[in-house]
């Protein structure tokens, strides 16, 4: 909340993320969100022009999250880079279930009912896959990593206890990458 007692942008976004995750885009309604937050609709308009602006904010924040994640993979030490990447990915998946971060599952469910969102989600997925392929220097492993992650998301939504299996995804992907000649980085020689 801000210092005047109104809900802040952060609280509205969290409520909207949860509504999108639990009920799809039709659940992201100003009146319904305000009721859930126990405030008047007027509070909403301090932060957003209208519902469409809120929906756009949800989609845009999801599109932008790849930058933070993929920056972790640019480290020199690939083993540490993968460890940091998967740790952060796991953290964000858990945060998304609490509405604290954008949810891939919610965006993909939204894309299933909205051609406009489907086009943007597809474009974003293609960008993520291109980044994986470029960083891992092997198309098959980049594609596998993305598909395995999507499988994890689908299973986790249906069976929440499956979250404990995330280390399987990170362990197998890390082993594939570190054992791939395409992703091995040459060792730097030290002067004697």
**Based on the structure given, which CATH architecture is correct?**
Orthogonal Bundle
In round numbers, the mean pLDDT is: 88
| Sheet of most strands | none
* Helix coverage percent: 55-70%
Structural class: mainly alpha
Q: Write down the CATH topology.
A: Tetracycline Repressor, domain 2
Write the layout of secondary structure elements.
Elements: H1 9-23, H2 30-37, H3 41-44, H4 51-71, H5 78-97, H6 104-111, H7 115-136, H8 139-158, H9 166-178
Helix pairs in contact: 1-6, 4-7, 5-9, 6-7, 7-8, 8-9
Explain how this protein is built.
The protein is mainly alpha-helical and 192 residues long. Helices cover 68% and strands 0% of the residues. The protein has nine helices and no strands. The radius of gyration is 19 Å and the shape is elongated. The relative contact order is 0.10. The C terminus is likely disordered.
Keywords, separated by commas or semicolons:
192 residues; mainly alpha; Tetracycline Repressor, domain 2; 0% strand; elongated
Compact summary:
The chain has 192 residues and is mainly alpha-helical. Helix content is 68%, strand content 0%.
